[in-house]
Amino acid sequence: MSANITVHLMRHGEVHNPQRIVYGRLPNYHLSEKGQQMVRLSAEEFKRRADAGSRFVYLACSPLTRTQESAAPITELLGLEAHHDERVIEADNYFEGMHVDAKELATNPRHWKHLLNPLRPSWGEPYQEQVERMVGAVRDTARKAYELGGEGAEAIIVSHQLPIWLTRLSAEGKAYPHDPRTRECNLASITSFHFDELDGSQRPTLSYTEPAAPLYSGVIQLPGS
Fold it and tell me: I need a labelling partner for 157 at 20 to 30 A (CA). Which of 62, 65, 85, 214 fits?
């Protein structure tokens, strides 16, 4: 049975983080002023699509502060309540709460055991575990969208860079280990998963947009964001 369901994974906006801490799952890291502008642009893009005929029926987000704040303008413009989903939270990270640079990694022996296996990775939540929870959340959200809106319905999940990127790699059938600098998942970007079927028999097709691209100049991005 054809479903024609789309689930959009939106990354949160820029976070106020002048000390450049790997904030990971820490609470109370809020969007910066520019971050608020970024997510507003993405929400306005969803509203533009809704005005053109897209049917958005469900909104979910990670329970962290920055994703809740990023979902807020979507709630305002589309009238969708944001449902918290623990499965789309940021990856666990050994370096959470630290300011980490190349010198710190090279000269502090207590970090070295956490750098031995980049394929797992040894510094945090295994890639495979992130994929399993994220794919489960995306597929459940797709089914929820179908239940609420039928064929052609769309849903939005506000999440974090690494979990979104790994979900994309999984959908593309690619290996999970990667260089973080190569991720195509910028701040407030939208990675869309288009499902023709909901039984898992087919991989979704993908599309990617950056509504907040005009605001990217000068932004500093860190792992664990």
Answer: 214
